[in-house]
Amino acid sequence: MSRPRPLVPRSDPADSVRVVGEFGVIARVLARSGTAAAAEVGPGDDAAVVRAADGRVVVTTDVLVEGRHFRRDWSSAEDIGHKAAAANLADVAAMGATTTALVVGLACPPDTPTSWLEGVASGLADECAPMGAAVVGGDTVASAPDSAGVVLSVTALGDLGGRAPVRRSGARAGQIVALAGRLGWSAAGLAVLRRGFSSPVAVVAAHRRPSPPYAAGPAAADAGASAMCDVSDGLVADAGHLARDSGVVIDLDPAALAAACLEPVGPLQQVASALGVDPMAWVLSGGEDHALLATFPPKAVLPHGWTVIGAVRAPGREPGVRVGGRPAAEALHDVGAERAGHVHFG
Amino acid sequence: MSRPRPLVPRSDPADSVRVVGEFGVIARVLARSGTAAAAEVGPGDDAAVVRAADGRVVVTTDVLVEGRHFRRDWSSAEDIGHKAAAANLADVAAMGATTTALVVGLACPPDTPTSWLEGVASGLADECAPMGAAVVGGDTVASAPDSAGVVLSVTALGDLGGRAPVRRSGARAGQIVALAGRLGWSAAGLAVLRRGFSSPVAVVAAHRRPSPPYAAGPAAADAGASAMCDVSDGLVADAGHLARDSGVVIDLDPAALAAACLEPVGPLQQVASALGVDPMAWVLSGGEDHALLATFPPKAVLPHGWTVIGAVRAPGREPGVRVGGRPAAEALHDVGAERAGHVHFG
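YS: structure for the whole thing
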């Protein structure tokens, strides 16, 4: 494991947003923002106008706070843009839709380098570009005088392309539980960064720029997924939301989960071994990889990228998550996971 | 003028968002949020789904920072919710559209009273309810550890109802310039609050809860408005955006403006007289009333609520704003206005 190189931008007063001013910042940021295929009116007016051919629009928003959701010394500006977009694009995918446009709100200290904001804009644009989406509007304001950190608020719009939205509430006993995407990599990368290291590169990169399986969302909807959510807080936590909203038990199969997430042996085990951690702790409780979790009818043909990791059962005493039939809390305890997922306001 | 009563909520640790937790906060806030007529999927899933019958969706976002855009001792939580919604609803109206839904991002210190957030939610809901809109989703996160203030990010979606969006770039020489709504009232209210007073109530209320003429936006579009924007930064500043985007001169008629904004004599003059200010300074440069400014073909029949306040002229040497034919900077100087409008990052 090697020490990280510093990522904090050098402070050049002439490059600060205070000196460049709101409209200068907006012009520079827009130059990095690309064009949304669905935009009828793009940035620069009172509002943007985005085509919604389906007659409906999917909308979701996420707020990222410096010092809580990212650190400028652990992630480049481009990384933070990628990560902020990914959190929203994954939410849109989890409804069975594809992102068409983003709008971005930004509160930043007046001494923030404009080049840093350009980096965030580049990251947002690059994460969206493969699906033809782009930032179509935003608002950039100065933080409160006593606040040193950036707050980034991203809202994504999405198109269902005629599909019914896949809710969290549609799982039924007898169905199968399946996963698309990675679990635990972001948590492993965070554990590495927290200890002052920057490798293995694969897990650190996964923490800085998650790679959600966006196309797996609409594909799951087309294959008849009955319920779906993205795994942003941790598998047990997010499976719990799905279980409660559907009134069922989600029973995760530990062998299937290990096969899906820990085989072949790779950097996750390498980091876990170096840090004396059970990698299953990260698989069960690590957030921010933005895998997709869905339930399907038992005879559904799973689309490419989806793997069965459990079964939906009748709730018994109450809805919730089990691991190999046991309460999830016991399984989390056994592998040394502190909690099921992120605790906000902790 | 009377001293304001304190509006800062009493701190009850058991009511803090830290103790209530993210999901408790969300549940309490949603209980105040109403239902959007256009929502097919409301709050509580990965994303909301909003009907867009027009096949397009209008989208705009605004960020409000405590200490810059609002103060908890000057405005109640409900006021702040109203104001945050109004800024976005006015942007949607300025395109010729009607708001259908909001999503809200909120970063707040863990000791923020949950009752304060419920108040913000009530204000947002009440401002949207008359047009059938409501909050359909959001994200509530803890501020950075060193930040004492709330950051509120609101994104509005709107429906054009088959109209062409009214851009800022469509004004043409020979057209008329018209105004709907009030100017200067919010600035007068802010001047009162800054001096430690809370009356005249009319201007303080206008600062706390602007009353944009939402219906005037779609009505202007139907009447053939060629360009439109909302006046959020100040009349001269926002007319300047319209002038530059259209490549024209916006020539404001001071007599028509006085007739529209200062007759009959009312609280604006009362405050101006008490503070030794020329009320025209607030009319020309005061922001946040969210009046609508539009240009129309010369023979257009203006809809209810619209008043002619000037003319569009060929740009001459360069596009910009004039007042009675003179450069706007001179007119601002004459009435003692410090600047054309808000300067961000100042």
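YS: worth flagging: Chain B touches chain A through 79 residues (CB under 8 Å).
IM: good catch. Also The longest strand of chain B covers residues 98-108.
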